[in-house]
Amino acid sequence: MAIPVKFDKAHALYLLDCLSTGKPIQPKDPRGFTGDDMLALAGACYFGAMSQGPGAWAQNVEAFQSKVKEHREAVSLNFETCLLAAIEFYGVLTDLVKHEEYDARQEPKALALVGANEIVGKTFAPVRGFKGMKNLME
């Protein structure tokens, strides 16, 4: 299945402006956000997160920067894959909220480490706020 991408440069500039200034994002359609609107927003948000680089997510940026060069390069190469896994995980958690299943599995605020690589695929390591150890990425 292929998903159509209806890109609009002017709308992308609008989204970037809203994201960088904190202005509210308004849907183009008066009835609300369409699927296309949501994908365009997701793409703009993904760009914003990706442009911060892997060091932005390191617990201690200095520790990330001081790691051996080969490890930093490996982390940077895998960064995009990990961001996509994190976005998917946010989607999984949001789905649980929508279907009123979140409270049975997580505390109101939860923290997990989500990653991905070619060998083991997506990984999920709960840090706090998870009532069970089940891998929600499956």
Fraction of residues in helix: 40-55%
Strand order of the largest sheet: 1-2
Distance between the termini: 21 Å
Which class of secondary structure composition applies to the elements? alpha+beta
Radius of gyration: 17 Å
Keywords:
138 residues, alpha+beta, two-stranded antiparallel sheet, 5 helices, globular
Q: What does the model show?
A:
This protein is of the alpha+beta class and 138 residues long. 51% of the residues lie in helices and 16% in strands. The protein has five helices and two strands, in the order αααααββ. It has a two-stranded antiparallel sheet. Helix 1 crosses helix 2.
Helix and strand layout, with pairings?
Blueprint: H1 9-21, H2 35-51, H3 61-66, H4 69-98, H5 102-105, E1 106-117, E2 121-130
Antiparallel strand pairs: 1-2
Q: Summed up, what is this model?
A:
The protein is built from 5 helices and 2 strands, in the order αααααββ. It is of the alpha+beta class and 138 residues long.
